[in-house]
Amino acid sequence: MNKISSAKEEQLLRYLDGELDAAEKIILEAEIQSSAVLKTRLEELQTVRLFLIRKATLETPSRNFTQKIMEGLDNQPVRYLFSPRKGLLLLIGVIIASGIALMLLTNGVFDETNTSLIVDATPFKNKWIQNPSISIPFNGKILVNGIIFLNLGLAFILLDRTILRPLFQRRTSAGF
Amino acid sequence: MRQRAVITSEEEYLLIDRILAGERNLYATLVDKYKSYAYTIAMKILENRPEAEEAAQDGFIKAFHYLKNFNRQAKFSTWLYRIVFNTAISYKRKTKPAFQSIENSIIEYSVRADHKIEQDDKQIFLSQAMNKLNEADRLAIQLFYIKEFSMEEVAEMMGQNMNTIKVRIHRARIRLADELKGILKQEAATL
């Protein structure tokens, strides 16, 4: 038997962690005695375990660690809505959307000044509402202009919150 | 050595009440109690002392500001470690990985190989093998072996369920043992 099953490996790990009950332990120990492969694997797992235990020491922070925290309690934690990468992607998306809208606008797609938005309100037809079609006049150009304006505002906020502010804050903190 | 046994959970809750009532200087008691653990978590993630210290301090400051949101059904330590863990992870995302010179590592190895005993070799190979593990598996196994952290706590800290953490720890141990086996085989072949 050269290959150890994963169930047996799991059992060896539980043995090393002291999680086996007395009966299981006796059986496994007998198996280990009679199998060089199991014995070698147990030794390997034990070496790994000892290595991990040795590495798991607590680190000691600097002496003024607590003092620095107490002095910094007035600093409000910085909250970023998006990571710089996500912010940049969103910013690019907003700029592309605004660009497309602007291009359509300059090509005269929204030049029809008084478009009627017809809402079919058939389900509400009754004795009081005779004509269920409701016509709402709106200016397409003004609407798209408004959307572009909002997008540019959003792009500015994104640029500030996700790219410029974190960048300058990092530069300031790096200067200490 | 262990500072954690100094105050009980009930005393800790009372302390939190007093901090929330305005006695902010008492927060230093909580910081002193948990600073080593918080710093160790940050160190395991960032592997850089100044950065780990900054991240751990940042985590404590965040915890102070969010203290009123702390749900007392959970342990304060677990809640705090989660904040420190997430802070250190975001620090790690912000910083670029340090450039490692291949040339230097070869020189370091050849010098060291001439002088160290076999046991040290295994430790060094295992340290290298640790770096080959995926980050989540490596963190799970490192945190689990810090005796103060139970598997539940590691799971809570990393924001994953217990079974996932169990699988990660198991997989990491097997992988390390496999790496060790490979190294020992290579050594035997060169003799």
Average of the residue pLDDT scores of chain B: 83
Quaternary structure: heterodimer
Structural class of chain A: mainly alpha
Mean pLDDT level of chain A: 79
Structural class of chain B: mainly alpha
Helix content of chain B: over 70%
Compute the number of strand runs of chain B: 0
Element order of chain A: H for helix, E for strand: HHHHHEEH
> What is the overall shape of chain A?
elongated
Helix tally of chain A equals 6
What is the overall silhouette of chain B?
elongated
Strand content of chain B: under 5%
The fraction of residues in strands of chain A falls at 5-15%
List the helices and strands of chain B in order: HHHHHHHHH
Cα end-to-end separation of chain B? 45 Å
Q: Ranges of chain B with pLDDT <50 over ≥5 residues?
A: 1-5, 98-115
Largest sheet of chain A: 2 strands, antiparallel
Strand order of the largest sheet of chain A: 1-2
Report Rg of chain A: 35 Å
Helix content of chain A: 55-70%
Please tell me about this protein's structure.
- The complex is a heterodimer of chains A (176) and B (191).
- Chain A is built from six helices and two strands.
- With 176 residues, chain A is mainly alpha-helical.
- In chain A, α5 (84-106) packs antiparallel against α6.
- The radius of gyration of chain A is 35 Å and the shape is elongated.
- Chain A starts with 5 loop residues before the first helix and ends with a helix.
- The mean pLDDT of chain A is 79.
- Chain B is mainly alpha-helical and 191 residues long.
- In chain B, α2 (27-46) packs across α4 (76-94), α3 (49-65) crosses α4 (76-94) and α6 crosses α9 (162-190).
- The longest helix of chain B is centred in the last third of the chain and has 29 residues, at 162-190.
- Chain B is elongated, with a radius of gyration of 20 Å.
- Chain B starts with 8 loop residues before the first helix and ends with a helix.
- The relative contact order of chain B is 0.09.
